[in-house]
Amino acid sequence: MDETISIVLFSGTDDKLQSASVMAAGAAALGRPVKILLQYWALDAFRADRINADHGLAPEAGEAGRAAMDAVTRAGGAHWSATMRAAKEIGDVDIQACSASMELLKLKQTDLDSLVDGIEGVASFFINAGEGQILFI
Amino acid sequence: MANLDIKLKVDASGLSCPLPILKATQGIKSIESGQLMEIVATDPGSVKDFDAWSKATGNALLEQDAVDGKFRFVLRRK
Asked: What is the pTM of this model?
């Protein structure tokens, strides 16, 4: 059984980025290799100059969801980027930027946070995913 | 309760999933094989999570109990 967990991270709102960081950290804590491909708005959220900015929430969060998330932040809850960094420290977590999204957003790797390990295409992603499970967030 | 020789105590109270198992992973790496780590968590998912974490990593779960809404786990590094 291939234990690698591969995540296509597409969404760029803070709640979905938080969800991805939780899944990545949980898998890493279990000793599973984790591969993340950043596309579109998720990639934009990993820009070094705005990784800690407010990226908003998914529409279904509504006002109550916004208030609940703000309460967690005020109580000192970990930012998704901190959880992702911790996941990389404890386990084998590789984060790649989708090359087509890099072009779309006119980004260079130097524009991205150091959490991002490199740039790859979809063929490389599927080869590395092997027979393991793939999540889309 | 047996008097165990706990090498490391980790307080993960107030932290939500997955931070308790993340802290456990950091903690277990700082002790030697055969040594014991105690971790306290309040996350309601932590009972099932530590059982799964123990099985996946091979670090044995020696004790677990719940007192006043706090879950306590004693784990032995593989």
From this structure: 0.90
